[in-house]
Structures are given as structure tokens and as C-alpha cells.
Design a protein that fits this description.
39% of the residues lie in helices and 18% in strands. The chain is built from 12 helices and 16 strands. The strands form 5 sheets. The chain has an 8-stranded mixed sheet with strand order 1-4-3-2-5-6-8-13, sandwiched between helices. It has a two-stranded parallel ribbon with strand order 7-16. α7 packs across α12 (338-354). The longest helix has 22 residues, at 121-142.
Length: 355
Amino acid sequence: MPITKRWYLGTSNYDPVSRARPDDDIENERHSVRVLVTGGAGFIGSHLVEQLIKREDQVVVLDDLSTGSVENLRHAQSICDFEVVEGSVTDELLVDSLVQECDAILHMAAAVGVKLVMDRPLESFQTNVRGTEVVVEAADRHSVKVLVASTSEVYGKNRSGVFSEDSDFVYGPTSVTRWTYALSKATDEVIAYYYFLEKGLSTVIFRLFNTVGPRQSGDFGMVLPRFVRQALSGAPLTVHGNGTQKRCFCHVEDAVRGILSLLDEPRAIGGTFNIGSTEEISIIDAAKRVIEETGSSSEIQLIDYLDVYGAGFEDIPRRVPDISKISNLTGWKPTREMDYIIQSVIESVSSELVL
């Protein structure tokens, strides 16, 4: 039987029943809800936890700490008390016990990062699909709204460049390891959508495009924190391929605002939404910008994909989100431009290097 650990982070005695304010508080304020954040100790998950607490929602974090860290939750801890459960999202009994106490779920837990997926494709696929299955099944049993995190990777090697939510998914053969993550997240979407369609469960799917910012690790293939760490240490910035591939980097603050706008919008139920920036930059230009912003003397080194990931890797030359669907529904748009994004990553990595 899986072993779980449960504890409380915060500044005072935790009341797991209620943090509701007195009856004489301002009328017509939004009601506090109790939210389970799976993967809440991860990069994006920890930022979601922080913002949920700031708006006075109650939060429960479930994370196995395989790629997340309790340290990521220190900012949230300084604001208010909340519950952290160390355990697996595939643990049916544990997940069920947490879901039945909550009003909503933000399902962020997943095997993430190109390097991790390329190194352990079967484990990554099983973790993603089984975890989502367990969470959505529990949500259905207890009639709890669930938002499922997906990714721009689901579009595969569709060459259209700009993707709307109804763009085709185009994959290579299943023997090519590159596509296991995309296939697992597409399967997650199928699970969530058909629980909505066939069982009436309140589900929302959101596809994240290259979210970056403080607390993101470069250890699993995330490019900007890796560039910044290399630049600050004077090492060459390793650009995979020829560097002409283009991406749109979205700051985590913007991504979290987008996710919460969907959580709060009843009309989002049953829908799928892109969340990302539309500001394009090539990877080699991103490396040049990092060198310039850090004042580094580092050089840029091009490395063949084969030398990094081995056989079975394909990259996509361009990936831009069409965000009109979420913008029209909730009014959300990203506000952080590339200069801000790079500076925030530099500040975050610099503080880590000092510690």
C-alpha cells in the first residue's frame, strides 16, 4: 500500500475545516472554494497555489515530489496555512479521500520535460494517463469540477504554425519516442472531454504553450533556465539543432491568470483552451538575448539532437497559439513580454546560485 505523508505549511495553526471570514465582511465578494492542486509543488503548480491563497481560497496540495519541491511552496507558506500531502496521483484511495473534501481540482501533476520523457517514455506515459484517469474518476464520483492541464505538444508535428483548439493533431509512429508525451496528454484530454460529454462532469482542458518563469528547473529540458544558468556560469549556451525553431514563451504569472480565469468561468465547462503568448522568438535569438541581458561572455554552441536525446527525436520548427477563444470568453491576454520574462528568470536563477 502506498505510503503518504501529510503536513501543514503556514504561519499559524491550520484549521482544515474553514478559513471563512466573519459574516460582517464585505458583501458580494466571491465565495472561497477549497481547491485540490495535484502537482502543486511543481513549477506552475506552486504559482497556482500562491495565487489561490492570495485570493483567499483554501488549498490542498498533492505531490509526490519527484520533480516538484516543498521549497517551491515557501512563498505561499508566508501568506497563509495550507495542507500538503506527499503521495502519488495514481493512488486511488488517497486521491478519492482528497477529492471528496474539495470544490474543484486543478490537475497539474504529470511527467514533464523533454529530457525526462525521452529517458523514461513508458513511465512518463503511464504516469500521465493513469494519473488523469484516477483524478477524473474521483471527480466524477463526487461531482467536483476538474481542470486538466494539457500542452501545445498535443498538436504534434502539424506544420500550420499557428494552432487553434480545433487544429489537427499530427504524430509520427509510436516507435518514435518523441511522441509519447504528446500522445499521453492527448489521451488525458480524451478522458476529461468524454467524462463531460457522456457523464456530465464539469471538466475544462487547457493547453499550455512554453510557460516560463521563477522556480522552473532547466534539469528536464526547459530551455530558458538552462540558458540563464549557463550564461551566469560562463559556460557555452547549448542550442539544440540549428536554433531557427521558433517558440512563444509565456510568463507563469500570465499563465496562472489564464488558468484561474477558466476556473472562475462557468461557460468554460466542456471546453478546451490554448494559454500562451503570441510573441515569437527563435531559440538562437533567445540565447543571444540571455547573453546580452546577463552581460555574459559565453558563446553559443550548436548541438545535434541526436547527441542530446539519441535516436527518436523530432522537433517542430514553429508553434504559436491562437488565444482568441480564451480571450473572447474571459478577457484573458498575456501581458509579460520577452524582456520581462528573461529578467525574471535571471533573477530567479541568480538567487538560487547564491544559496
